[in-house]
Write a structure and sequence with these properties.
By secondary structure, the chain is of the alpha+beta class. Helix content is about 45%, strand content about 20%. It contains 7 helices and 6 strands. The chain has a 3-stranded antiparallel β-sheet. Helix 3 packs across helix 4 and helix 5 crosses helix 7.
Length: about 180
């Protein structure tokens, strides 16, 4: 598996009939496109196969999925949906897909319903949330342990984060 974060999500599909006959025949296909277009490109690759009547394929490699694993026999609908999500949301989308083991419905609904924003740390989120809802006397402000509050929220299962860069976390509430 290749992981090139600057590239668009794409898959390398290989003809199984050719592989069974000791040929390596396949093509790179842009995964961030309509499923019918992906299927057409796979069909065209199979039509060019050195083995007549080739019909079966497998995904032998992929790139641009930001670390998300793609199964050799993943469905094209699933691959296209994941690719579009990662193309739109980048490392954040990939991190959410990993968080929910590739469950696209859970991933999309979490981003839509449970996202609190991007912060330098979970402690920064806890400080902002607290100071927006409670007035902390100035004399006590330096005694509040935002890191401890963040650990408690995370360990208690109330919140989770996706880190997309150093000093950049995205905060989500658990349902």
């Amino acid at each position: 598996m290749t992981n090139i974060s600057d590239s668009n999500p794409r898959i390398y599909v290989a003809c199984l009939a050719a592989y069974s006959n000791s040929y390596l025949h396949g093509a790179w296909v842009d995964a961030d496109q309509d499923t019918d277009q992906i299927r057409d490109e796979i069909a065209a690759m199979l039509a060019r196969s050195p083995v007549e009547g080739a019909e079966e394929y497998a995904i032998y490699d992929y790139e641009g999925f930001e670390g998300v694993s793609i199964s050799e026999y993943a469905g094209i609908d699933t691959v296209a949906r994941m690719a579009a999500f990662i193309a739109e949301h980048g490392a954040l989308g990939a991190g959410l897909l990993e968080q929910f083991s590739g469950d696209m419905d859970q991933t999309e609904s979490t981003l839509e319903d449970c996202y609190h924003g991007r912060f330098a740390s979970l402690a920064d989120y806890m400080e902002e949330l607290t100071t927006e809802s409670v007035t902390i006397p100035e004399a006590l402000r330096n005694y509040v342990d935002w890191d401890a509050m963040a650990r408690e929220a995370e360990m208690g299962g109330d919140l989770f984060t996706i880190e997309t860069a150093r000093g950049e976390v995205h905060v989500f509430s658990n349902r």
